[in-house]
Amino acid sequence: MNMARNLTRRAFLETAAALPALAQGQAQPKRIAIVATIFRLQSHAQHIGDRFIVGYPFAGEWHKPNTRVVSLYVDQKPANDLSGDRAREFGFKVYPTIAEAVCCGGSKLAVDAVLIIGEHGDYPRNEKGQILYPRYEFFEQVAKVFEAEGRAVPVYNDKNLSYSFEKAKAMRDTARRLNFPMLAGSSLPVTWRLPELELPLECQIDDALMVGTGESDAMDFHALEAMQCMLERRKGGERGVKSVQLIEGDAVWQAGEQGRWSKELLRSALSRSDNLKGLSVTDGRTQDMVGTGVLPQLVKNPWAYFIEYRDGLKATLLMLTDAVGDFNFAVKLQGKTEIQATQFFLSPDPNVTYSACLASKIERMIETGVAPYPVERTLLVSGILDSCLDSRVKGHARVDTPHLAVAYQAPRESQYCRS
Amino acid sequence: MAGNRPKLAAITTVYRKYSHTQQVIDRYLEGYGWDGAHHHPEMDLIALYVDQVGRDDLSRDRAARFPAMKIYPTIAEALTCGTGKLAVDGVVVVGEHGDYPKTPKGQVQYPRYRFFEQIVAVFRASGRSVPMFNDKHLSWNWEWARKMYDTSKELGFAYMAGSSLPVTWRIPSVEFPTGARVREALCICYGGVDSYDFHGLETIQCMVERRPGGETGVKWLQAYRGDKFWDACRDNVWPRELMNAALCRSHTLTPARAGFNDIFPSLDEMRGLAKDPVAYRYEHSDGVKCTMMLMGGLVRDFNFAASLEGEAKPFSTQMYLPMPDGRTTLANFFNPLCNNMEKMFLSGKATYPVERTLLTTGLTAAGVDSLYAGQVRVDTPHLAIRYRAPAGSTFWRT
Where in chain A is the domain with CATH 3.30.360? Predict the structure, then answer.
C-alpha cells in the first residue's frame, strides 16, 4: 500500500468532518462491543467491524453510523493482528475476556450492542468437515453477563449461529428467553441482485435451485441462506424442513438425468453468471454449459444439497466450483411459464461493499431494537447445513430432520439492497 | 421462420481473447445470458472480415466451429458474400483493439472511418443500405465522425454506436429522474485518454441527455491533468460533493491506508493513489456543466453523480461492468449492447440515437485537443448537436 501512513485520530476526524455532518441534536452514539475470533485485514471482524469504526458507503454517501466501538475481544492474535492498532487509533480497548469486553473492564454491562464475529482464525475441523468456530461459546459468555445483569442488548451473530444445530437452537432460545433482538447470517440475502428479483409474498413455488462456488462449510452456508431468503416468502410462510440429502460426484449428474434437480433451472441460473470457468477462461467465450453438456468433464467434485420442506417444496443447491465463480438462483413459480433467475452480487475484494449492505441492517437493529429479519432464517439454514453434512458422513443417505420444524414469517418488506 | 432471420456481416480489426470483436461476435455465435435464459440472437452472422490476424487469432477457430460464418479477405466481399451485391441485412463494425499507429496527439488510429467508407461504397453500388452498428466512438478524427454521421443520414440507414456503459447494469438500478433539472454531472472512472475517457463521457451523456429540453450540444471543454487536476480539485472547479457521491458508489476504491479494506480517502490520499489523473470539464449550450474524471489507481469502475434542482443530496449510481480483469471471466456488459443491436437489426430502428455517440466522439477528440494544446479551454461550436433521449430506458434491468 503506497499510501500507508499513520493517520492520527485527529487527522481522521478532520477527514470525517469534510463528510456529511451528523444530524443536529443526534442522540448519544450507541456503544458497541465486538467479540471476534480474529481481527486481521479482510477477516469478517475487520471488514464488518470497521464499518462501525470508519463508516461505510451507503446510498451514495459515506455513512457514519451513530455508534462508537468501545471494546473488542479477539480470541486469536496472529502476527498480522490489527486489534491493537485499531484500539489505539480509535480510543477503545482490547479486553482479555468477553465478559470484560461487554462490561468495558467494569462489573456491569456497559455497551448498547454486541457484534459476535466468529469467522476466520485457526480452528480445527470435526469429522464432518465443519470448522469449529466458537460462536456458541462466545454467545454464552455474552448472555451470561446479560443474565447476571437482568438486562440485555441487541446481538448480531455473523454467519451461521453455530456449526451445530443444537448449539444454534440454544442461542436462539436464550435470545428469546432473555428477550433481546438478535440478527444473524450472511451478506448474500441483503446484497444487490442482478437483476432486482424479489419473489412476491405468498407465491407458490414449483421448483428452486441455487448454484454456488467454494468450499464447505463456509461458502455453502452463504448459498443456502441466499436461497432461503427467497423461498421463505412462499405461501403459508416458512414451516421448516422435513429431510435433507447431500450427494457428490457422478451421482450429482445422474440425479440431474433422473430429474431430481432441474437442468432447465440450472441453465437459467448459469445464464446469470459473470464467472463461468472452462472455455470462458481459455478464450473468453460465452457458454451454455447445460446445453453443451460440458459440466461432467469440467466439474471434478460436484456436490448437490437436496432440501425437502415440510410443506412439500423441494429445492436444490449445486456447488459447482470448477464451473462457476458466483452465486445464482433460479425459480419456477406456479402458473408462470418462464423461469426467473438472478445473481446475488458479491462485489470484489478488498472493498467487499456487500458487507456495507449487511452493516446497514445491523445498524438498523441497534437503532430500533428490532431485527429487520428473523433470526429463525439463520437458525434453519444452520440446521440445514449441519444435517446435509451429516448426510455426507452417513454415506450420502437421506436424513430426516424433525428437529428442523423451524417456522417463521418472512419480513413483508424486501430487505436486499436497492439503494 | 428461417427465411425471416436477418443475415449479418461483421467488419472487425482483430479477433483475439477479450478483444471487443471476440466479445461481440462470440455472443452472436455462442449466444449469451439474457432474461434468465441462454439467448441465441434470432439472426445469422454469415460473413466476417478481420483486418489483422495474429498468432492469438480466434476467428479461424470460430469459423471452423460455426461453418455458416465465412471469412472474407475484403470488406466488400464480406458484405456481398462474393455475389457482387450487398447480401446482408445488417453490419456490425467492431474497430477496437489491434495494432494501429498513433497520431502525434496519442490517438490510436483505429480504422473505423475506412471500414465505414468501404461499407457505404457497397451500399451505394447496390442501391440499398442496411442498419449498421459501430462499436465505441465513430472515429478518433472528428471530421471523419461527422462525415460518417452525415452519410448515414444521407443514405437513410439505421445507425447505432457507442459504449456498453449506457446499457449495462446500474447499481443501484435507477434511471435519471424524468423531468429532473440537472445543474452539474460528473463521472469518476479509470483508464486512459482516447480510450476509457469515451466510456466516461457516454456514462454522463446517457443520463444528462434526459433533462428537460433534450440535448443541446456542448459549448466548450477544458482538460486538466496532473498538478492542474489537483489544483482544480482544491479550488473546487468541480463540486467536491459530487466527487464524494460518485466515490461512494465505487466497489473498487483503493484503500488509502494499510490495514483497511474500505476507507474514504482525503484529497491528499487520493493524490497519492491516482498517479496520472485527467478531467474533462465542459459546458452544454443550456449551461449544464459536466466533468469526466479518469482516476486510475483510485478506482476501477464507472461512477456517476449529479446535482439536481430541488434535491438536497446528489443523485448517484454506478454503471456496473463485470470486468474480466480478475473480477469475472465474462465481460457480460456486452450482453445488453448486443441485445440493443439485435433490436435494431430486427426492427430497422436504432434503440437510442447515434447523435449521443456523435457528441461523445467530439468530446473525446476535444479532450485530446485540449490536453495537446496544454490543457487550455477549447471552444466547440461544432458540437452544437441537438437530439432527444429515447422515451424508454435502455439499460439492463431484466
Answer: 190-348+381-404
Residues of A within 8 A of B324 (CB-CB) are 284
Cα separation of the two ends of chain A: 30
The Cα–Cα gap between B243 and B366 comes to 23
Best of A274, A288, A321 to disrupt the B interface (most B CBs within 10 Å) is A274
B2-162 CATH:
3.40.50.720
Q: Which of B26, B38, B207 should one mutate to test binding to chain A, selecting the residue with the greatest count of A CBs within 10 A?
A: B38
Contacts with B263 from chain A: Cβ below 8 Å: 50, 54
Distance, CA of B358 to CA of A376 (rounded, Å)? 56
CB B388 within 8 A of CB B354: no
Sequence ranges of chain A with CATH classification 3.40.50.720: 9-185
| CATH classification (class only), A190-348+381-404 | alpha beta
C-beta separation of A40 from A81 below 8 A: yes
pLDDT by position in tens, chain B (length 398): 446 899 999 999 999 999 999 999 999 999 999 999 999 999 999 999 999 999 999 999 999 999 999 999 999 999 999 999 999 999 999 999 999 999 999 999 999 999 999 999 999 999 999 999 999 999 999 999 999 999 999 999 999 999 999 999 999 999 999 889 999 999 999 999 999 999 999 999 999 999 999 999 999 999 999 999 999 999 999 999 999 999 999 999 999 999 999 999 999 999 999 999 999 999 999 999 999 999 999 999 999 999 999 999 999 999 999 999 999 999 999 999 999 999 999 999 999 999 999 999 999 999 999 999 999 999 999 999 999 999 999 999 99
- The full set of domain ranges for chain B reads 2-162, 167-320
DSSP-derived 3-state class of residue A340 = strand
| Residue closest to B305 by CA, chosen among B194, B170, B195 | B170
Task: State the alpha helices, DSSP H only, in B44-195.
Answer: 59-65, 75-80, 112-126, 142-155
Task: Tell me if chain B has a CB within 8 Å of the CB of A279.
Answer: no
Q: Which residues of A touch B398 (CB under 8 A)?
A: 195
- The residue whose grid cell reads 440535448 is B215
What is residue A64's DSSP assignment? Answer: -
Give the count of beta carbons closer than 10 Å to the beta carbon of residue A195.
17
The CATH code belonging to domain A9-185 is 3.40.50.720
Query: What is the helix (H) or strand (E) element at residue B37, kind and residue range?
Result: strand B37-39
Report d(CA A54, CA A71) in Å as an integer. Answer: 15
- Which chain B residues touch A340 with a CB distance below 8 Å? 36
Instruction: Please name which of A216, A37, A33, A34 lies closest in space to residue A118, comparing C-alpha atoms.
Output: A37
* B302 reaches A (C-beta below 8 A): no
Rounded to the nearest angstrom, the minimum Cα separation between A278 and chain B is 10
| Non-local CB neighbours of A373 within 8 Å, separated by 6+ positions | A183, A189, A229, A361, A410, A411, A415
DSSP per-residue codes, A269-280? HHTT-S-B-THH
User: ipTM of this predicted complex?
Assistant: 0.97
**Closest CA relative to residue B176, chosen from B23, B315, B373:** B315
Show which of residues 47-76 on chain B sit within 8 Å of chain A, judged by CB atoms: 58, 61
Q: Do B262 and A353 touch (CB under 8 A)?
A: yes
CA-nearest of B284, B278, B318, B292 to B183 is B284
Q: For the whole model, what pTM was predicted? A: 0.95
B258 to A1: CB separation less than 8 angstroms, yes or no: yes
How many residues in total does chain B contain?
Answer: 398
Rounded to whole angstroms, how far apart are CA atoms B227 and B106?
Answer: 20
